[in-house]
Amino acid sequence: MKTVSLTIDGNKVTASEGDKVLWAALDNGIYIPNLCALRDAAEPAAACRLCFIEVEGCSKPVTACTEPVQEGMVVNTKGANALRLARTGFELLMASHPVDCAHCASNGVCELQIIARHLSIKLKSKRFRKLLRELPIDSSSPEFVYDPNKCVLCGRCVWICRERLGIGALGFAYRGFKRMVTTFGGEPIAESSCHGCDECVLACPTGALTLKDQHGGVSRAQRQKDPQPTAP
Amino acid sequence: MKAAELPTIVSTFRDIKDRAESHWRELRDNSKAVIMVGTATCGRAAGAMEVLKALRDEVKKRNLDCPVIEVGCMGHCYSEPNVTITKPGYPPICYAHVNPVIAERLIKEFILGDDPCLEFVLAAAEENDLVPSFSDFPRAQYEKKVVLKNCGQIDPQQIEHYIAHGGYAALSKALQMRPEDIIDEVKRSGLRGRGGAGFPTGQKWETCRYAAGRSKYIICNGDEGDPGAFMDRAIIESDPHSVLEGMIIAGYAVGARYGYIYVRAEYPLAVHRAEIALRQAQKLNLLGKNILGSDFSFDIKTFQGSGAFVCGEETALIESLEGKPGLPYNRPPYPATRGLNGKPTVINNVKTLASICHIIENGAEWFASIGTDGSKGTAVFALAGKVVNTGLAEVPMGTTLRQVIFDVGSGIPNGKRFKAVQIGGPSGGCLPESALDLPIDFDSLTDAGAMMGSGGMIVLDEDDCMVEIARYFLEFTQRESCGKCTFCRLGTKQMLEVLDEITKGKGRIEDIDMLMELAQDIKAGSLCGLGKTAPNPVLTTLRHFRDEYEAHILEGRCPALMCADLITYYIIPEKCERSCDACVGTCTVEAISPNKQRIKVIDQEKCVKCGTCLTACPPQYNAVIKVSPPSEVPAPKKGKTRK
Ligand SMILES: Cc1cc2nc3c(=O)[nH]c(=O)nc-3n(C[C@H](O)[C@H](O)[C@H](O)COP(=O)(O)O)c2cc1C
Ligand code: FES
């Protein structure tokens, strides 16, 4: 495959032609906040809107997960306009996220904490109203607990379960603010087609899906299996 | 087309046209009267089907040789049901607000007798000495019917009517041209997409034509989800063949084999009429294999969407056509290079496609001579809200908003004052009086913070609260957001929350800056056009009516007296008539009772602000008023109220 060279934050890097800037950056140890990107997905979901970057010659920030690399391209992941969008997007997510890290099984490995640190913003948004959905928690599975309130709708679990494993126990339902990840007809996970393979739990960037044993926590080691490279 | 096929196309079409013309002549050119009833959805809502039945019953009962046919919408929706009678010796006369009783009289007195019942006349369709005609209306000076030319003039369920009025001649002509010349013609005409964004149509077709891939598609976007818009529905219901013809020409120009008409399922009549039109066009080989004997084949199907606003967005529409949930995806690739089933796809609005036959027939120069530098041709608007002549209007681009609202629409009813015009639907914005002299075109409206949109135009008067209007549209987009991307799902929800608080008098002055900042970010950060435009109603009202926001926040006052939480109903004692009890009886919660002097007083504790008393109070007293903020209500005079 042909490779192209580009500059990201002043670093010269190379990437395969057709690759997206997000992967080129992550592969070279340059972190760009992201939640919904999946390297093996046919098309980027471009849903979380956190991966904004600035590209020389483009007047507006673009999402790194959809932007193909180009020879000689100059990318800035720290531009003011890109960071402003990423911060607002992240604050919006956090304004609808029950922030209770001390009691959350994902404390310490949560990607939201990593992103907050990267963007230097607080987990608790001051700017926006707290808008929670107060949905029931599903602990019917013998393996894991699903708390939809902590879900950021990145879609990794849905993709793994559906596209990679071909099980399809999880999917998206409803529209707008009510959109959520759930089972067919909203039945408890234990009664769904779930095999209990836990792959979704490993993919979840937040505390929405957590294992029942070892106090629910997913260890860092387990996270490594996660398809998603996280922060440096 | 190969040279050998040209004579076949010409002669095949000539035969079709001859037959259609003799069909039309039979209907219109002899000595009998013809009655046309407007039975598009607007007519039906006003009772046109009852009128149609009454007319047909009467004709049958009296054994008259007088065809009663259905036609589409003439655009005068404010005066539906409309009936047009053409009787030898008279100009064609259009009647307004016809009901079954009037229908019977028209038959008895005009068809059988010689009294054209002038008391029911809207106007004559031609100039004459007897009755004023449509051309005497002030709006005639501004209107120019291109896309709406046939609407209300022909029976949309009879292809012969369309052909006799010049229909499918453009297709016959196009099939004799080279596809690249058609694209060139469309490019030179300056036609820009009527779906909202105004993308140059010729350029889109060219991209699709030269995109790699053998199978290609044409999609007609008839989703029309904007509240208050009904242009596309009216066109499909009134003149479906003009849309089909545009699609077939598009198919030939880009090299597509199949087309889809995407219409929302809430438009059953449009779907029905489009399907009739498809069958009739197939029968005459204007659709199907080897159209008119050429080597071009094209088929069209209808597809019913389930009515989500976001499904009007082209990528969501394509997902929906493919049987998936209607969620937008990232562009590029644009549909013109990779669309339906991954194949190059042209997706155009109903009005864009309906303009094509006129461009091919009359030439690019003719089309380009109408309109402004950057926006050619005409604009079709659905006038709604506080305007006298609600209905459809087609004017050349460059006509001012004032001319459309005050001359075509005849201004604001009930002597009220104009406040703003909401243009472009939920993606558009509210423009104030100072923008009224703006020439309407894609660029000027975008510069003003609004958007051409698909043609919805809602007129607002002094009784409309601009904060509430912004809240209403945001509530709509928020509800219609697919929820896929963060900015649209959560950002619009945050904005709505703040606007809710402001209309309830609980806003904070810092909220205004927060709204503006968040609005900018939602526009820049959203995945699809829905989110990218959703903040426009808020941004334009903040820009032009910031004082109203401030009045709500700082004074707890709604200047338009519309926000229920910020108003109180009050009966002015000096105006209240002792002997009248109109309000007392109508109050739904028994909150009104007379005091010792028999002056009525509202118990504010009980009042639910339904406004019934204000309507009930006879106009000669006009004693009930709305007061904002509620604290402005004078303290009740001493003296006990009597039970
Ligand atoms: C939320 C949203 C709703 C839309 N709804 C419609 C619609 O109802 N009808 C339409 O023709 N275009 C609609 N569009 C625009 C389409 O995406 C597309 O641009 C258009 O159909 C292209 O046709 P045109 O080039 O003829 O304008 C909508 C866009 C967005 C973002
Ligand atoms: S990672 Fe790019 S939008 Fe989510």
Task: Write up this protein.
Chain A is α+β, with helices and mostly antiparallel strands and 232 residues long. Chain A folds into two domains: 3-91, Roll (Ubiquitin-like (UB roll)); 132-219, Alpha-Beta Plaits (2-Layer Sandwich). Chain A has six helices and nine strands; from the N terminus they run ββαβββααβαββαβα. A five-stranded mixed sheet of chain A has the order 2-1-5-3-4, sandwiched between helices. A two-stranded antiparallel sheet of chain A has the order 6-9. In chain A, strands 7-8 form a two-stranded antiparallel ribbon. With 643 residues, chain B is an alpha/beta fold. Chain B has five domains: 32-136, Glutaredoxin (3-Layer(aba) Sandwich), CATH 3.40.30.10; 159-368, Rossmann fold (3-Layer(aba) Sandwich); 378-464, Ubiquitin-like (UB roll) (Roll); 467-554, NADH-ubiquinone oxidoreductase 51kDa subunit, iron-sulphur binding domain (de novo design (two linked rop proteins)), CATH 1.20.1440.230; 567-627, 2-Layer Sandwich (Alpha-Beta Plaits). Chain B is built from 24 helices and 18 strands. In chain B, the strands form five sheets. In chain B, strands 2-1-3-4-5 form a five-stranded mixed sheet. Chain B has a five-stranded mixed sheet with strand order 11-10-14-12-13. In chain B, strand 16 and strand 17 form a beta hairpin. The longest helix of chain B is centred in the first third of the chain and has 23 residues, at 6-28. Chain B starts with 5 loop residues before the first helix and ends in a 16-residue tail after the last strand. In chain B, 53% of the residues are buried. The A-B interface holds A 43-50, 52, 60-61, 63, 66, 81, 84-85, 88-89, 92-93, 95-96, 127-129, 131, 153, 172, 174-179 and B 308, 325, 329-330, 478-487, 489-491, 493-494, 497-498, 514, 517-518, 521, 524-527. The structure holds flavin mononucleotide and FE2/S2 (inorganic) cluster. The site of FE2/S2 (inorganic) cluster has 12 residues of chain A, from loops.
